[in-house]
């Protein structure tokens, strides 16, 4: 998700020679968020044709919505990551990625266990 959420603008900030100006950071963040929000809105607007095309059940549709929301949330950490990378503070970036991966996997395992429990023991 991280790779998609920066929509290509992070690379421009990382590669820029010299000091980053506040207005460059603000402009990049604003453009990025407008693009992300536009894509997410399209995802919510067109979820019915998408779910019909892929024959998604209600669990898959909920996962689709969760992914759209996580797309937005992960986009919020792009600028702080860029600033850390420019200062060569990779440990901050790595710690953030480890925590993000840990939370994702714990939530995934918990959710999967609940679905299996429901199917195995409740028969639905």
Main traits of this protein?
124 residues, mainly alpha, 7 helices, 82% helix, flat
Descriptive overview:
The structure is a single chain. By secondary structure, the protein is mainly alpha-helical. The protein has a domain at 2-87. It has helices at residues 2-5, 9-15, 22-45, 47-54, 58-75, 78-86, 90-121. α2 packs parallel to α6 (78-86) and α3 packs antiparallel against α5. It is flat, with a radius of gyration of 18 Å.
Write the SSE topology:
Blueprint: H1 2-5, H2 9-15, H3 22-45, H4 47-54, H5 58-75, H6 78-86, H7 90-121
Averaged pLDDT = 85
What portion of the residues fall into strands of 2 or more residues? Answer: under 5%
Question: Total strand count, please?
Answer: 0
Q: N-to-C terminal Cα separation, in Å?
A: 31 Å
Backbone shape? flat
Pattern of helices and strands: HHHHHHH
Total DSSP helices: 7
- Report the helical percentage: over 70%
- Biggest pleated-sheet summary: none
Report the radius of gyration as a whole number of Å.
18 Å
Low-confidence stretches: none
Could you say which structural class the secondary elements and strand pairing correspond to? mainly alpha
